[in-house]
Amino acid sequence: LLSDGFLAGRSPLSIAAVALFIVSNLMGQKRTAKEIGQVCSVSEGTIRAVWRTVFPKKDDLIKSEWLDKGGKMENLPSA
User: Fold this and answer.
1) pLDDT value of position 8
2) Neighbour tally for 33: CB within 10 Å
């Protein structure tokens, strides 16, 4: 996520929270930004803001192996 700098300046905790948000939803264990935020001590608004940044790059970030293991792109919420 950080290699091309599109999340430069974001807190590692915010990035981790968004990663949990993505993976949980991708794998069908739907969790809201609010639920993830409460566990990670990151605001719901921050998770949503980072998700809006990540969303356009989701096809490049999500590995095909994750989809082979049951992940579904259609489970991801829109930005």
Assistant:
1) 83
2) 21
Query: What DSSP letter does each residue of 3-62 carry, written as one string?
Result: TTSTTTT--HHHHHHHHHHHHHHHTT----HHHHHHHHT--HHHHHHHHHHHGGGHHHHS
Cα–Cα distance for residue pair 34/2, rounded to 1 Å: 24
pLDDT the model gives residue 79: 86
CA–CA distance, 26 with 47 (Å, rounded to integer): 16
- Quote the tokens at residue 57: 């790059």
pLDDT tens digits, 22-48: 999 999 999 999 999 999 999 999 999
Distance CA 67, CA 59 (A): 11
Enter the DSSP assignment of 69: T
Tokens 């096809």 belong to which residue? Answer: 59
